[in-house]
Predict the 3D structure of the following.
Amino acid sequence: MSASTSPCKLVILVSGSGSNLQSFIDGINNGSLSADIAAVFSNRPKAYGLERAANAGIATEAIDHTEFESREAFDAKLMERIDSYSPDLVILAGFMRILTPGFVQNYHGRLLNIHPSLLPKYPGLHTHQRAIDAGDPQTGATVHFVTEELDGGPAIIQAAVNIETGDTAETLAKRVLTKEHIIYPQAAQWFAEGRLTLESNNAILDNTPLSAGGYQYND
Ligand code: GRF
């Protein structure tokens, strides 16, 4: 955790549009997130998220996973570059790579992800379509600590969205994203304030273990 005098130092990893990254940049600019983004990384050199970062004057690094022989080799390079910034917290913001156990362990308790479902429902891909196909009344998004289990680490905060008649995966994804942009910077702010920790595979907020879905965000 960062000392109270210096803001929490973040490194953010993206693969695509980076709208979640943008919500962090906006939160820092409007004072709701007390943090600095030291660098933004992408495994896709053309990710729009890198442009967003550059436009905000943030250092960017593209490390193209297709240039590495193995997942381990890519993760080792990524880790080496991330660690050169000594971040307090590493944020996966639409980073579409499965990370090796060595990577996950290196950032134990300081690695967060956002997943577009109400975890533990629908880990993995195509979450919105799966929720529609199942006839669920609601879906949403969950911020969680990253552990070795894919999309399985302890939940921190969750926001639900009603599924309306006629919703498609696209219409739902848009509405869920607006919630993601609220809950992800909120989780990071709790961490920056020293209120959020990972202890024995439990997410702890204000000295209290969070329940299975994490804190339930309501508008
Ligand atoms: C989000 O839906 C996030 O939950 C998922 O990937 C998407 C990233 O969107 N993991 P963006 O790149 O932040 O716009």
About this structure: The domain at 115-219 is CATH 3.40.50.170 (Rossmann fold). The CA atoms of residues 29 and 38 lie 14 Å apart.
